[in-house]
Amino acid sequence: MRASVLSHVGRLVCASALVLPTLVLLPAVAEAAGARAPTTSSVLTAAKSAIGKQTSVHLVVVSRTGTPLVEENLQGDLGKTSGTETVSEGSETVMIKVTPTYGYLSGDSSGLTKIFGLTSAEAKRVGRDWISVKAGTSQYKDLAASTTVSSVASILPPATGTHLDTPARTAKRLYTLTWGTAASSSQPAFANTLTLSAVGTTLPVQETTTAVGGDKETVALSKWGERLVVSTPPAGSIIPLSKVTG
Length: 246
Description:
alpha+beta, twelve-stranded mixed sheet, 8 helices
């Protein structure tokens, strides 16, 4: 598996019903800090802690980039040690499954070549089967890093340079964090917005990243803590990675 395969999937990760737990009636951060008003740092600290305690999350990522415009979509269900993702770009589709012992990759021919980065010959060897990578390998670790719930913490910004709007200002039951990312030699400047639940557990609801020039990515998160079961592909449809790239 090439680095481009996993960097593409990781970039997409970085639901229609945004349902979050509301187990108590007071803002989680304010409760944790007593009567003190929440700050950017306290909200981010509470969110990082809350994410670390979650067993699963459902996410939907929509990325619109380039000229002409190309839309990429990712839907995933991420657990503590397992998860699934489906990535599509136009008619191209690939799928990922991760269990505690193996990671699995599959897709149509164009998805395997254009999204995963396999050669045409390698994609032909795979066909409609599943490529397997064993736990403990670098390829498995890369897959697990983007398909487990701990990866969600990567969307949290640094406190420095991030502005907090509290529910009192937004008239909503959400915290809103906004920050900018400066342009570099390899990417344009970005404007970022992250909303988090201000009632119950402080968990992310949606992140939007907009680049100068119009590129945009939205990450929606829901179904925190719901039961997740990841099934393994049928044994007869599994091909070790070494037999694909060897």
